[in-house]
Specification:
- There is one protein chain.
- β6 and β7 form a beta hairpin.
- The protein is α+β, with helices and mostly antiparallel strands.
- It contains eight helices and 14 strands.
- The strands form four sheets. Strands 3-4-12-9-14-8-5 form a seven-stranded mixed beta sheet.
- α1 crosses α4.
Length: 321
């Protein structure tokens, strides 16, 4: 059964600063844990997922996508991992191979980014509705989420752990209406504590800016292929270290943000219009990339919606300026 979708809220979402994360006891020590929900369970509705994310900062969604899609993503990204030299970025350890600009290189990754449950959660949590005057007319503008960045990770044996961080640091989130970002990291291979599963600190999205994250507070989000960790951009997390000798860990991260923020990964360079046309990306994919208008007027070209002027699309989401 497909996950249920709730309507986009018209008021900003807020979450309590009080942490109610469910703990588990390991060797006599209380550790936070992540709730697991199955996308195949009819009770895993959009609203149920949001309730857990707002409380804990993240949730594991089992069976988010099919084995067939996972197999295709693995095949699509393999040559990019194999040719990646590690680059000069200090954000990822040199032992991590990457693939970027995923919507421009893999149709399977486009399908992942548009998966119904993730799309519904992102729309509900990140859509902004703003009412304002234009002359004597009271107008309501809607801005929907867009891609912030996309990346495939292959954490190779011997890979070191990333530093714990918040993804929304890119947006200088002090005194900002929250949330501004949502991430979805999907397992392409089985991910375990030993092979570098993403580590996360449940409840850390409610911490003040002056509290530093500690490695011992984090837990691994162990996943079967096709399952995913959905989490807020304000939740501390990191790519785990791979202590195995012969087991690479592969995941794909789709990170979305509010529609009026600058994207962390420049999608107009990674997936320029010529490439988007060549790959015959759908209107939904193009808008997710940021080619649509964030109302009232962010993203126009020659005072027209690029979905019409660049891509020749006519639908009920075209914004008239």
């Amino acid at each position: 059964m497909a996950p249920s979708v709730i309507e986009t809220p018209t008021e900003p979402r807020h979450y309590s600063k009080t942490s109610n994360v469910t703990p588990e006891t390991t060797n006599g020590v209380n550790k936070p844990k992540l709730v697991r929900m199955s996308a195949k369970d009819p009770s895993t509705t959009c609203s149920a997922v949001i309730e857990v994310i707002e409380r804990d900062g993240g949730v594991i969604i089992e069976n988010l996508v099919s084995d067939t899609l996972v197999t295709q993503i693995k095949r699509d990204l393999a040559p990019y991992y194999d040719s990646d030299t590690g680059g000069t970025s200090h954000f990822f350890p040199s032992t991590t191979s990457r693939a970027t600009g995923l919507l421009g290189i893999s149709s399977a990754c486009v399908e992942l980014a548009l998966s119904p449950l993730f799309s519904a959660v992102a729309d509900a949590m990140l859509t902004s509705t703003y009412t304002h005057w234009y002359g004597k007319v009271l107008k309501t503008s809607v801005s929907r989420p867009q891609i912030s960045s996309t990346v495939g990770f292959r954490v190779n044996p011997g890979g070191t752990q990333q530093g714990l961080h918040r993804d929304d640091a890119d947006y200088h989130t002090t005194d900002t209406e929250m949330p501004v970002m949502l991430g979805c990291v999907t397992a392409i291979t089985k991910t375990t504590k030993e092979n570098g599963a993403t580590i996360v600190i449940p409840g850390s999205h409610k911490w003040s800016a002056d509290r530093a994250p500690l490695d011992e507070e984090a837990i691994p989000a162990e996943l079967e292929p096709g399952s995913a960790l959905m989490f807020l951009g304000h939740t501390y997390h990191a790519g785990g270290g791979n202590t195995t000798k012969d087991e690479a860990r592969e995941t794909v991260g789709i990170f979305v943000c509010k529609g009026y923020y600058r994207q962390a990964e420049n999608q107009y360079l990674m997936v320029p219009p010529e490439l988007a046309k060549e790959r015959e990306l759908s209107p939904a994919a193009l808008r997710l990339l940021g080619y649509g208008i964030s109302e009232p007027m962010v993203g126009f070209k020659d005072y027209m919606d690029p979905m019409r002027s660049v891509f020749g699309i006519e639908d009920d989401q075209i914004v008239e300026l």
